[in-house]
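FYI - complex with PRP, inputs then prediction.
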Amino acid sequence: MNKEIVDDKTMKRTLTRITYEIIEKNKGNQNLVLIGIKTRGAYLAKRIKSRLYQLEDIDVPQFDLDVTNFRDDNPVEKQAENPQFKAVDVNGKHIVLVDDVLYTGRTIRAALDAIMSIGRPSKISLAVLVDRGHRELPIRADYVGKNIPTSHKETIKVSMAEIDDEDKIEILAN
Ligand SMILES: O=P(O)(O)OC[C@H]1O[C@H](OP(=O)(O)OP(=O)(O)O)[C@H](O)[C@@H]1O
Ligand SMILES: O=c1cc[nH]c(=O)[nH]1
């Protein structure tokens, strides 16, 4: 059974709030770089980029990151560099990592490794649309859209208009 818990209007407001929080916490916004984790984190980062521009006239570089090669469930022999991402200059930058759901934290751990493998940022912050709890690693988000307490049996499904035709967040009871 799917239960919609966030509709399109609420999701838009939530992203606007996260954007304002990023602006407030980073006065001057110098050296900010948005990195969105594929799949939906990349679309969220693009939206935050365009809101930063609309709200404050700030043009922040934004890149997509595929963490597959850095996952701890991906055999080491299959791990390879990601040539496109390797070209991103992260040195001395304040990276805002963006993802849709924060659960065990393993995806973020992989993303941190991917970023640190190509340079030395001055700071890395984390923005997520949903924090559903159940961390398996000492990772926390700096910007949280919605805290949604879940059981292990449930799944949070984020839909985004860019690939799913509409914006919504649902809880799926497995
Ligand atoms: O904190 P974790 O336990 O790592 O879970 C969170 C990750 O799981 C989902 O990605 P998924 O692997 O389903 O890929 P997708 O984004 O391409 O759907 C979600 O988009 C997060 O990236
Ligand atoms: O519930 C979950 C857990 C991980 N990733 C998701 O997208 N949803």
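The radius of gyration is 16 Å. The chain has one domain: 2-23+30-70+80-173.
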